[in-house]
Write a structure and sequence with these properties.
It comes from Chitinophaga flava. This is Probable membrane transporter protein. It is a multi-pass membrane protein. This protein is 77% helix and 0% strand. With 247 residues, it is mainly alpha-helical. It has one domain (2-246). The relative contact order is 0.24.
Length: 247
C-alpha cells in the first residue's frame, strides 16, 4: 500500500507545486479512499503540504512574486484561526463530514479555474480591501485547520476573481498562505498532543512529495498545463468528497 501511495503522492506534488499549491486536498482524498486513520490523515497531509510549499515560497520570493505585505494581510487572522480549528476536538464522524464538504467545495473551485478563468485576458487589478480579504483568509484558515487542508485551493480563485493581484503573485501568495496555515495546524495538533506520525508510513510519503515538489517547481507551466492539473484532480477530489458525505 505504501508504494502505491508514494507514487500517487509524488505525482500530486509534481503537478501541484508548479501551480503554487501543496496538494493537501488530494493527499486527504487519497488517504480517505485508502481508509487511513483520520488523525494520521491530518498530520500526514499537513506535513506533506509544508514539505512541498516551503521550497515554492522561497522560489516565489526570490523571483519577486511574493508581496509580503499582502501575504501577511491574508494570514494575520488565518494563522490563529487555523491553530484554533486544528485544536478543536472533533469526533471522527464530524471530521469526515467536514472533510467531505471541504473536498466537494475544493472540486467546485477547481472546476471554476478549469472552465471559467481566462488566462489570456490582460491582468487589470482592482484596489483591494485588505480587511475584507483578511477576514476571508481567516475563514479559510479555520476550515483548513479543522480539516488538514492548507487552504490555497480556496484562496487562489477568490483572489483571482477579485483581481487582487497578478496570476504569478496569487500563486506566490497561495504558497505562503498554505505554508503558514499548515504549520499553524500542526502546532494546534501538537498543543492537544494529537499529532500522529508513523515513520514507516509517513516517512516515504514525505520523501516522495519532496522529490515531486522539487521537480514540479522547476518544470515550465507550458509542460504541465495547470488546467490539466485542475481537471485531473477535481474528479478525484469530488469523488472522495461526495463519497464521504453519502457515508
Amino acid at each position: 500500500m505504501v508504494i502505491e501511495l508514494c507514487i500517487l503522492f509524488f505525482l500530486v506534488a509534481l503537478l501541484y507545486s508548479a501551480a503554487g499549491f501543496g496538494g493537501g486536498s488530494s493527499y486527504l482524498a487519497i488517504l480517505a479512499l485508502w481508509s487511513v486513520d483520520f488523525q494520521l490523515m491530518k498530520s500526514t497531509a499537513l506535513l506533506c503540504n509544508v514539505a512541498v510549499v516551503a521550497g515554492g515560497v522561497y522560489h516565489f520570493y526570490k523571483s519577486g512574486h511574493l508581496p509580503l505585505k499582502k501575504a501577511w494581510q491574508l494570514s494575520l487572522v488565518s494563522v490563529p484561526l487555523a491553530f484554533a480549528g486544528s485544536y478543536l476536538p472533533l469526533k471522527q464522524e464530524t471530521f469526515f463530514l467536514l472533510l467531505g464538504f471541504a473536498l466537494t467545495l475544493a472540486a467546485v473551485f477547481m472546476c471554476y479555474r478549469l472552465f471559467f478563468e481566462r488566462s489570456q485576458e490582460p491582468e487589470t487589478l482592482r484596489e483591494s480591501n485588505g480587511t475584507l480579504y483578511g477576514l476571508i483568509g481567516g475563514g479559510i484558515g479555520l476550515l483548513s485547520g479543522m480539516t488538514g487542508i492548507g487552504g490555497g485551493i480556496y484562496l487562489a480563485p477568490v483572489l483571482r476573481l477579485g483581481k487582487y493581484d497578478t496570476a504569478k503573485n496569487v500563486a506566490g501568495l497561495s504558497s505562503f498562505f498554505i505554508l503558514v496555515n499548515s504549520i499553524a495546524g500542526l502546532l494546534g495538533q501538537a498543543a492537544k498532543q494529537a499529532i500522529v506520525f508513523d515513520v514507516t508510513f509517513a516517512g516515504p510519503l514525505l520523501l516522495a512529495v519532496i522529490v515531486g515538489g522539487q521537480i514540479g517547481a522547476r518544470l515550465s507551466a507550458r509542460v504541465l498545463k495547470p488546467r490539466w492539473v485542475a481537471g485531473a484532480t477535481a474528479v478525484l477530489i469530488l469523488y472522495a468528497g461526495v463519497r464521504m458525505l453519502i457515508k
